[in-house]
User: What shape does this take?
Amino acid sequence: MAHPVPPARRPPSSVPPPAVPPGRAPRAPARRPAELPPVHAALICVAAPCLAISPEHGQLTGRGLDGIYRAGRRLLSRCLLRVAGRDPVSVQGRSLGADRAGFTATVRTGADPGPDPDISVDRVRHADGTERITLRSFAARPLRLPVEISLGTDLAELGAVAAGRAGPDVPAGVHAGGLRWSTADAQAVTTAEPPPDDALASMGLLRWELDLAPGEARTIELRTSQDRVPRPPVAQLAGPLAEARAEGDDDPRIERLFRSSVDDLRALLLRDPAEPADAFVAAGVPWRCGLAPAESLWAARMALPLGPGLAAGTLRALARTQVEGRGPDAGWIPGPLRAAGHRLPPGCTGTEATLAFPAVLAEARRWGLPDPEIAALLPAAERCLAWLRSAVGDDGFVADPAAGPSRCETQAHAHRAALLGAELLEAHGRSGAEEWREWAAALRERFREAFWTETPAGGAPAAALRPDGRPVAHLGGAAAHLLDTGLLGGGRLAPGLLDRVRTEQLARLLGAPAMDSGWGLRSLGAKEPGHNPFGHRSGAVRAHETAVAVTGLAAAGFDKEATGLLRGLLDAAECFGFRLPEMYAAPQRTAGSAPLPHPAACRPAAVAAAAGIHVLTALAGIRPDAPAGAVALDPVSSAPLGALRLSGLRVAGEPFAVRISRLGLGMVEEAADALQLGV
Assistant: This one.
């Protein structure tokens, strides 16, 4: 879920764009702002709300997005190191984890004859503003090294930096063994340990004279913060997510993808300022460093195997934004617009979040969310269902705001909300459950008649219906949501909008080369007019949609198609160092090819990180029903990645571990004593 609106229409910011209430047309932008600067080659470290963006050579030059940020403010834009009067020669830059990156460089001082460098420079930069610079001498005799670090900042907001409106550097002042910059509304302080021998505020320069014996190393630590007395490093927020692990006996990449996915989710965790006890994940960095209703909720749903705590915090945060009162917008969760490609107008993420709310609450209950927390959130879920009732048009479908088209994925979200919401209502003695089941059954009949278009290849679901009932007939990744049905009681999966024959046809289409790029599911079929492998809704692969397709196909019994997409996604993850971007370009896979980074993709992104967790846990087919004290396994019978073990998951509030054999047989290794196990 890449951008709330097309990047050509809105400058990026950590503040989300205004939401568009149902029934109100969005205003056209007055002018075309600057395009998003590329970030695909940057090393991005995040420990929300802290962020560091570095080029591969590690020197912060003050150009582009380079810098150390906190809460969307750039605290340091320039950090240039010189050793013995020379710029170090970069030899490697790499990610060391979600919140830190390492850079290695060399310096040749000329102390020894020959071309070999005699000083190594290792820099480790953390998202929290801490940087450790270690210089090691390999010279044959003692050296005295002059070391200079040039520092500077503009104290600009991230949105202004991305739009090219950062402004000049702020003058520096000497402060307690470092430098300080301040304006009327912001300040930044960088301190050094050991303190510099000299600090020149006018040049933003810190200087040391370091004596190094042969083989000796010396370390300089910089710490940048908003405070006069720098805070200790920020600890990652880990409370809502269990310490889970995945191990692949036949494919070691499973462990790396799972670990990276969990680390990225932890790095994106934020506290709700209104209620600091509630945590949610930011949508992604660097463009959307805050709560994005649809993306944050999707990530929480996909991470339910790590415990329902993240889902609960996200639901409570969104419930506080819900529209109150009795008007047509009552119960709606505001959300920004999101571009939908060339053939459809922007869609409203608020509609998606409102429909997801009751479904995520119902599934969190199955995984073990305690009854008191469910009861507190139930009124908000009922308001979402009330809004759904008012949003149904005369044709029986749910359309986007401003009389937009009725999209196929919106009907899938509404259908799931009705079925899972009915279970919530029934379980808590509320009225309306049977009416929602009847409405969902009627929606299935209407959908199969109106949305299914006949083609020479056997038919396909329309992407949308126009207000006059004409179909928008193109095949895109959004159709994967028709396979995502939701979890009911007793380990059952909810029925989908499509019957078995149409489901089989959709599976065939999603598994064909036009949609399966070999690296994941395309957001628009390669044979469709306007296909662009870099288009974030018109051809690029989206990790989230690919994960939805994999799990939906596997649950429906189409192992071959699910396996092709799964292996492509895992191969792509390996190409990206197991940190999946939210989207990437993937021309048809051939020998020696690789997926291509999208210059504007968020990385890490909440839905991409959660997608890795979702597909790997789905291989075990865990079907929990905590209220009934039961859990069942329905593993993918073909075991597409070989033997697999998942441990540290949470079901009914207790650790849960499961092993899947190479034959696709599942065995629970650890579970709460009160859980009844089944298949």
